[in-house]
Amino acid sequence: MLNIVIFGAPGAGKGTQATLLAEKYDFLHVSTGDLLRQEVAMGSALGRRAQDIMNRGDLVGDDIVVPLLDRALRQRSTLPDPDAAIDPWDRERNGMPHRPEGCIIDGFPRTVSQAQTLEFILNRLQRKIDLVIAIDVPRDELVRRIHDRAAVSGRSDDTEEVIRHRLELYDQQTQPVLDYYRVSGLLVSVDGSEMIADTNHRICSVIDAKLKRK
Ligand code: AMP
Q: Which residue, by CA, sits nearest to atom 10 of ligand 1?
């Protein structure tokens, strides 16, 4: 059982890598960006509040994103949920799906305060972060990739001006989270400047080494 945070600037490929890893290791993949986009697509009250903020490339408030993350981690929790009505250890007997061997969290935390919130949420589920993987990509390569993605993604926050703003916010608010995890000894940086498969290979080596030590 391994709980991983995957970290990287917009365009670093964290969503792509998280999807590949979730498949390979049978991890639960929780992406706060995807959870928010789902709410927007459903037109829920949360989605309506998040939409303009996301379109501007700003960070949505913790009052919106934290409940979504909390719900996603609890619903598919691999450990007993303190508030669950049925005993979660009886999932299989209750006809519920197979437990993943861990989770990979993508897009959260984006601020130091969110990092503290994540510890709190996991702690309640008797879990902790085992590993933080930061995907390192030079700035000019990030900008090039986001431009390429913009041509196909249809994401309303992939425009020139919004991209610049998202990168600025990353430097100001999200970069300090790396120092937070560096101090706690959980951080491993991986070169993400080459092809998807190369980065994936590097990340898998880090995860395999960690799994062997467990
Ligand atoms: P992503 O798919 O991770 O690039 O996220 C897309 C957008 O969703 C971001 O630009 C933010 O507006 C919002 N978002 C995702 N995760 C968070 C978070 N942890 N805190 C605040 N806003 C978030």
A: 57
